[in-house]
Amino acid sequence: MIDGNFGYFAGIPTMAVSGNHDTTYKSGTGSGETLKHFNYSIPEQSTGYGFYYSYSYGGVKFIMVNTNDLTSDSKLKADQLKWLENELKNKTERWTIVALHNPLYSPGKWGSGPSNTIALNLTAQLSDLFAKYKVDVVLQGHDHMISKTNPIGKNGLAVRCNTEKIDGVTYSVNPQGVIYVMNGPAGNQSRSVVYEHDESIYDYAEGSNVCSWAEFEINGDLITVYVKNASSGTAVTQKTWGIKKTA
After folding, report:
1. What's the CA gap between 51 and 189, in Å, rounded?
2. CATH number, domain with residue 166
3. For residue 1, what are the CA distances in angstroms to 6, 119, 233?
4. How many domains does the chain have?
């Protein structure tokens, strides 16, 4: 895929998040192969199962979590958890976006199943932490779904907020919680909703059978998101949403 789109990828920065295939590719050396493609400044860590790092750009703090870096009982390891809280505690940017592969909130088979210990343990470790430090958006993968939660506050409870429509886009105004999103399969392997989901938690939750992705525009006090797909061979906007800060 990267070779086929080399001209495009060569012209834009790409900030990767470690996923499950980065530990299984080429007999377990996938993370080493992944690092060959990118030149990142990362904190001191073991890279045997991927890598974690952060960066700032355009008034946004981006924190890239490695959900392969787990203990034997499927919890994020202490070193990364300590690093993550330190990054959140000391951020000064207007916006905070966290990206991770394994989802905390998903209507798919990897994020909703009562037997999925990784999702359950990551949610127990991270959901309240993200709410405490006022993370704005968490980007998730793995389940290949198209979903967006309402703002999630302490104890995993949805927190309602005022909304405002600007140019046809509905914005959550000063949400007191974290919005968790999945933007579908950018490549192949479509998935369907597996588990019934709590409608108080999700704004929308859908499967996807076409290549889909999201484009974020961040301009001062506004984040505007366009969820797109290529069902007709060209980019089509499927959903829009946003966040507005007034304080």
Report:
1. 25
2. 3.60.21.10
3. 9, 28, 17
4. 1
pLDDT tens profile 219-231: 999 999 999 988 7
Sign, CA torsion 138/207/119/189: negative
72 lies in which domain range? 3-244
Tens of pLDDT, residue by residue over 130-166, are 999 999 999 999 887 889 999 999 999 999 999 999 9
Q: Is-contact 45 79, C-beta < 8 A?
A: yes
Strands 222-229 and 212-219: antiparallel
Q: How many CA atoms lie within 13 A of 207 on its CB side?
A: 12
Bridge partners, 224 (sequence order): 217, 242
The pLDDT tens digits for 65-106 are: 999 999 999 999 999 999 999 999 999 999 999 999 999 998
Spatial CA neighbour of 104 closest among 126, 136, 87, 85: 126
Q: Please, how many CA atoms are within 13 Å of residue 223, restricted to the half-sphere of its CB?
A: 23
| Crossing angle of helices 117-132 and 78-89, rounded to 10° | 20
